[in-house]
Structures are given as C-alpha cells and as structure tokens.
Automatic annotation (TrEMBL), chains A, B, C, D:
Binds 1 zinc ion per subunit. This is Carbonic anhydrase. Its cofactor is Zn(2+). InterPro entries: Beta_CA_cladeB, Carbonic_anhydrase, Carbonic_anhydrase_CS, Carbonic_anhydrase_sf. Reversible hydration of carbon dioxide.
C-alpha cells in the first residue's frame, strides 16, 4: 500500500473533495442506471492529450479507447484477441453510440517511431514495430518525401493516421451499415499540444480545420 | 464540420478558456521537451472512470491505455497487431515509466458480459467474446458460484481481472526483469463509480483496501 | 469476590455513575412494565461487534442472541436443546418483535475456521466444527475458489452466512407466516470492524450496501 | 433498504459520529491484530441487560454469548449443533479467555416461563419449553415452594440458574482442567434491572452479594 504513487493518491484526494463532491449525485445515478455515452473517442495513450480534459467532459460522457497513435486496425474476425476491435464492438453494438471521434495529436511518439527509418525494436517482441506497421505504407511514402521538414512529415502522418483509422472503421460491416443508415457519424480531430488548438477534420474535404472558438 | 458533436465543441471551448489558459506554459513546455510521465495507467474505456479525472492529473502526468475491462493479454510475440502490448512496450521501454497501475472499476460492462452464461456475440466478429475470453477460466469458476449474488460475483471478477492483468504484465520478460531490479512497480486499483471510492490492492495479500483519504 | 475481574467491576462503576444515573427512570419503568423490544438482533459473540454499541441502543431496545458467526440453524423440532431456536421463539411468539436483524461482521473467527481446510477440532467434542457445519456446503464451494484471495473468500462467506441464516429463519413456520402477513421483517447487516461501516443487505438483490450516513 | 429499522440506522449514525470516531484507532488495531478478550460473558438475550452496557466495555473486551436465561447446557459431545457449547469451546480453546462470567438478571422472561405451571408451548416446536427444561428439576422444586412469593421464587431460580450454568461449565473436561490448573476462573453475577445493582456470586458460599461501588 505504501508503494502506491503518492502523486496519484494526492490527486485522488483532490478528486474526492472536489469533483466527486460536486457531482456525487451524477456518479450515483450513473452507477445505478449504467452508462449511456453518446460518443466514443479513440485517442492516443499520450499523457498530454486526455480526451476528458480536452473536451472538459464529465462522468458518463465519453467512452474512450486509448492506444498508441489512436489507431483502428482493419476488420479481422480471426478469433484472436483484439483490444481495439472489442472495445469498438462494445461501444457500437451494446452502447449504441451515435458518434465516433478519432483524435490524434501533435508530437506523437508512435508516429515518430513509424517515421524513423533507423528505428530498432524496443524489445525482442517488437510490439510497437508491429503495431505501427498498420501505418507502414503511408509511413514509407512520407519518409521518402525529403522536401517536407521532419515536423511537417510528422504532422502529415499524424493526420493521415486519423484518416486511416476512419477508413478502417468503415471496414467493420456493422459500422459501415450504421453510418449508411445515418445512425452513426465518424469524425476526425487533431490536438496541438503546444497551442491547445483542436483541429477538426472536414468530412467533405478530409482537411483539418480550426473551428471558431 | 457542422456534424462535429456540439457538446464536445462546447467542452473544448471550456478547456481553452479554462484549463489551457491556466496551464499554457506547461503545455508549451511539454510540447517542446516531450512527455515523460512516470506512471502508466491501464484502465477501462468506461465513460464513468477516466483516470485523469479520478487522479486529478494534469497534462504530462499519466500515460493511459484504455481497453474494455482494463486487461493485459499474456506475452505473445507472434507478429500480430497488439494494441495493448505495443502501448505497454512503449511506456516501459521508451518512456521508462516507474509505475504501472491497472485500474478496474465497478459495474464494468465487459466483466458483466464475461459472466453472462447466455451472452450472444454482439456482432459476427464476436470481438468482445474473444477479448473477454482472456478471463474465461476465472469467469467460469465465478459463474458456478451460486451462493454469491450477481453483484458479488461481478465485483469478485472485476478484482480478479486486475490481478490477472498484473500476472500477465509479469509474463513480459522486460517487465519482470525491471520489477526484479526495483525499477518498476506494479499496482492494482479498483474504482467504485457510485461512491467515488478508490480501493487499492495490497501487494502482499492482493486484497483491495480503501486508503485513508 | 476478590477474584471478580477488576476491569469489569471498574466498568460497572462507570455504568452506575454514568448511564444508569442518567437513565434511572427508564430502567425502573422497564423493570416494572417488562421489556417490549421491537427488534431481535442475531449477532456474533465477537468482542468487537456488540449490537448495543453499534446501534447505540438503550435499555429495552434490542433483544439479542449471540452465538458464533451469528447463525440460525434450520427448523428442527426434535426435542433437543436449541439455544438459538428457543430465543427465536421467545422473541417472535412472546415478545412479538417486528424486525429481526442478522448481523455478521468482518474477520469472524468462526467463518475463518469454516474456511480452513486443515482445521482441527478445538477439543474432542468438536463443537465449533459441528456448529460451523451449518455452513459446510457454502464453505466448500468458497474454499475451492482459488482465484479470490483469502480475505475475499472470508468476506464472501461472512455474507453468505447471513443470507443462510435468513433462509433458515424462514424454515420456521411461524416466522414464514408472520413475514407473509407483513407483521415481521427480516434484515441482514454486516459490520466492518476496521472502518466501523455497517453494510445493509438489500432485500431485493441480497447484496450488501452501505447506507448514507 | 428502506425497510431497515430507522431507529437502528439513527443509532448507528450516533455510533459513527461518537464512539467510533473517538475509538477509531482502537477498532482498526483490533481489526488488524484480531480480538483477544480476556473475558467470556454468558448473558441473557434480554433487551435490558446488555453486558457491554453494564460493564461499560469497549471494543475487544468481552466475548459474549447470549441465549435465553444465560444458560449453559451440560457437556454433550453428540455431534449435534450446539450454539452455546461451540461458542464456549471457541472462547476457551481458541481465544484462551482467563475468566468466564455467567450473568443473570431480574425479571427474566425465560425463568418466568420455567416457573409457570400452566405454560403452554409458544409454538408447536416448543423450543423454549425444551430449552428451559435444562432447569426443570430446579424449577419444579421452586414451584412447589408456596411460602416464597412469586417474586422471591423468580429471583431464587434466576440465581439457581447461574449456579446451574457454572456447574454445567465444569462438565466440559477442558474447562474443568483449566480451572484446576488456575488458568481459568468462573464467576457468577446477577443484574437488578430496576436498581441497576450488580450482585456478584461469592465463590466460596455461592451467595450473591453487592460489591461496594
């Protein structure tokens, strides 16, 4: 018990005396009635880009998947364990969310690794290498582009990755069908850690644009 | 653009005028220097249990994996895509976190599905069924216990799942080695949505205990 | 006389100069008119869980049975001596209590003995072994669950024992009938010695829940 | 939950804000280290005679058996369920108490029933009739004494019952042996509900005497 990180315990005390105290009834009601979030956010694990902070979301509002580089693998009903596909299935089929937001962000370590031609496996299992392999064709194409700066390449792949995830979402038959019926909407967003700006993908052009704030 | 969920846009405006305004320098500095969180939290996607809220964490503090039922699969260096193992590898090998917290919570929908003997696949891919299969032996043992109430069985499996994830973390050779060297500590925690209480796993007995607040 | 425990004599003097002095009229009146408690509490002998202390009860309020692990045996009108059934009969038929509370508690030594697969008889009579045999089927089912911790198994059986006692109460024809007529209500409660918390059994789900305090 | 007696809930709140708040550390310490009471009290279920109140006892001080008329049956190692013998065995063999106090009291309903020549069974099981049968020879002898008043007969049998319980305690081989070795002492006491007086049995004469207060 003594080993539990003290910063987390201290933060938890703030939560209990602050936010929880303010929203006690909401938490209780959410516990009783169950969650019914209308939005699924697929975000990165990055410590600087928590969806609940960026969207100032209260309890019960966002169902959140977080993996490295906010990626969605393509539909692969092969019987293996699929953390992301399982969460996706749960959000869409069981919770029946109406919106899915894929949110990327600047200075993403996973994207940086994908773009590094000299990247070594981080461990013999090379899990990051395999995982970022989902972006391999795009990464190779961007890597070979030597007239963009490294920062531009990075931002470009971050946004490509978001569109890639949106494409992969549509490889799931149920998601494609629900979107076709107008019951589900897919969105892209990109968060600039430095400026705090949120760029939203225009569904028509697939460009990222800053909304008026 | 008009389709982007208005509640998220509205929340984002609160963030910009509130938290971001207050912490502008911190965000900028984190963007420049990169993230160096000391803690990885493996949490559930549930909309009522966001780690940053529960630990009142600021930007840069928590690297967060979120999947259904906060699970860690066993070490499987098989070349497939492993969202969780990839994020884990990144946190441990690249970011060199000093602590990993597996945080479960009450009323978890994934655990409920694992305990439902009549659960049907949510979709033909049955991703949730496969994913929760990680807990199958434990779930079957708990299911057969007809003298605990459904709620007691649910809580029991939620806590067993946390211990299971901790066991699986130790199946990763690098994690086991770092823990052995005293460079990495593994923790379990369970959040009660209704009361806001955080129960922390005693590393010696593996019981969950409420810390003094 | 000199042998009477001095701590008890000293405590008795406190009672006389304190509580008795304050409630002299109540004691006298209760002596004259006889007792008419509305509640029977079936509690454990444990020195840390006295019902009058936990419910801050005054004289005349609680009729109290205390045996190891707050158990009620099933209805057995066999002509033998039955301490618990006799007290039960007196409370229900003669005092006509309106409520029966079965109160268990954490860290119960009787429950611990019931869960110990290597428990030896405490004496040749093996009275505890026989008495805890009332819980034998449940204890065996919980014992075989090796994925809950010893503390979790103990808490589970403590609560199962309360439900078991409530079931056995309903095996007494008079109690079953009075409950059916709405003249008698049965309740379960579990006291946490460490935190002082009282968990109350929800009659619908049979789960134990902390009331708002 | 709504059905739980409100007077008990209200009393529990007093306990939490009062006694528990004052003795929090003691409760915690007792939970950690386990109970080690030095005294077993065998008392009546009567709502007016709670040992913890009369001896002003704190948590952890008294291990308490309560049955109708504070009786101890004779040693009967017959394999049946024996609530009182089981608790006795636990207190003596496991907790190794140094003192056993049998505490009777005035106006005891069980004793009154034992003395009533016209007493009808309270229910077809006649559990009280059987239980008070433990005192049958003594009760018959007192009943036939028509020169004592009913109150005198009642008080007499109350005290006889205490001595009877002490005799039966000595029918347990382990208790007899421990007493012989000076490791266990047996005491009798009788509480006068009306005056609050505690009468203590002189071990030499077996008379009940009021100690100086």
């Amino acid at each position: 018990m003594d080993s539990f990180p003290t910063s987390l315990l201290s933060g938890y005390r703030n939560f209990m005396s602050g936010r929880y105290a303010d929203e006690r009834e909401r938490y209780r009601s959410l516990a009783e009635s169950g969650q019914s979030p209308s939005t699924l956010v697929i975000a990165c694990c990055d410590s600087r880009a928590a969806p609940e902070i960026i969207f100032d979301a209260g309890p019960g509002e966002l169902f959140v998947i977080r993996n490295v580089a906010n990626m969605v693998p393509p539909y692969e009903p092969d019987g293996n364990f699929h953390a992301t596909s399982a969460a996706l299935e749960f959000a869409v089929q069981s919770l029946k969310v109406s919106d899915i937001v894929v949110m990327g962000h600047g200075r993403c370590g996973g994207i940086r690794a994908a773009l590094d031609p000299n990247a070594e496996p981080l461990s013999p299992g090379d899990f990051i290498g395999r995982w970022m392999g989902l972006l391999k064709p795009a990464a190779e194409q961007i890597q070979s582009n030597d007239i963009m700066t490294p920062v531009e390449r990075q931002t470009a792949l971050e946004r490509i990755s978001i569109r890639n995830s949106l494409n992969n979402l549509r490889s799931f038959p149920e998601i494609k069908a629900l979107e076709g019926e107008g019951k589900l909407q897919l969105h892209g967003a990109w968060f600039d850690i430095s400026t705090g700006e949120l760029w939203i993908m225009d569904p028509a052009t697939r460009d990222f644009i800053r909304p008026d704030v």
